[in-house]
């Protein structure tokens, strides 16, 4: 496992993150969760990601019990925004009241005095972005959280938030969390370029499209597009001596150095397979073949701008090297 810097901070984060949405409830039970965490630790992984609402809080509670004396070895990440009480309008959202209450709840469950990476879980259109950014910065200054990120939000919201924070001297979002896989490439339109421009780390969930791209028996739905992608993954995997899951994860990593796939394994065997993606280097022709299975286009303005070239900027523009 190698490490990169979280956004424009000095925090070292592993190439692959461990997601614990499957810890607890009908998912992995505590003993299995321990084995998964131990194997991830042994592999050199150091980012463990959860959320206040995963398994009705059981994910945080299990994780808090497992970290113990090795707490400081991990970059502990959790999220707030989702409701803690469906009957209380202020028990959800990105406003200061919910942030403070959610943070205290997560700290208690995780048995720690600070969160290393605190994510806004999703955009709340009812809360002014300046309220959220100021409240997050206050929590950073109080020592209860160290770095902040945002998940599941439009690119313009993230850009507005980071620009505002920069102007005000507040803590900026260092990370973005979004879905990304061969079948779901929407982030390439606005979110990924925005994150790269701000120097943000991009933590990507569902790299296997909730198991559909793993190539396991029974994991291929009737959707023709998915079947096409799975066939291509299997072909590339056979050529490289890898598994379809490893190739699918390697594809996301090949798209941008900012990308850190989140592994959501529920068994040690699944995690072991996923970790094998670190050893997979995809040749250009394999990436192109996998790209072609998604039938993806940037749409406007991406496709328009990509084709403007010499028509807009003159013939000499074809000889100008970009950054």
TrEMBL record:
The keyword Calcium does not apply. The keyword Oxidoreductase applies. Residues 16-293 form the NADP-dependent oxidoreductase domain. Keywords: Oxidoreductase. CDD domains: AKR_AKR9A_9B. This is Aldo/keto reductase.
